[in-house]
Design brief:
Blueprint: E1 10-13, E2 17-21, E3 73-76, E4 79-84, E5 94-95, H1 97-103
Parallel strand pairs: 4-5
Antiparallel strand pairs: 1-2, 1-3, 3-4
């Protein structure tokens, strides 16, 4: 993987909702920063809130529903990178937040 394509890329949910950034855990808005609202289990705009439409396992807009038709987009300075989604695994446009975190060593 080329981690540079993900570094500092924004995560944008349906309706243009900003859901944080991809990048090392020291970045303020990183979904991997444990102090960021975007990594919390309570924020409405966090993919890790399993009660939110972007973080539960059944929403059509969720990262964690591998059948979601409209998961959050990953947008870098150069444009669309792909979708932040746990699946399906055969889709080359979908990238799991867990795979990105560990492959890029952003924990």
């Amino acid at each position: 993987w080329d981690c540079s394509k993900f570094n500092d890329a924004s995560i944008i949910g349906d309706g243009g909702v900003y859901l944080g950034k991809l990048g090392p855990s020291w970045l303020t808005d990183s979904i991997f920063n444990s102090s960021s609202e975007y990594s919390s289990t309570w924020s409405r705009d966090s993919i890790f809130n399993d009660s939110s439409e972007f973080g539960n396992s059944y929403s059509n807009k969720s990262v964690f529903n591998d059948l979601a038709d409209n998961p959050p987009k990953i947008i870098s300075d150069s444009g669309f990178v792909g979708y932040l989604s746990v699946g399906p695994s055969w889709s080359s446009e979908r990238f799991s937040p867990y795979d990105i975190k560990y492959t890029c060593d952003w924990d």
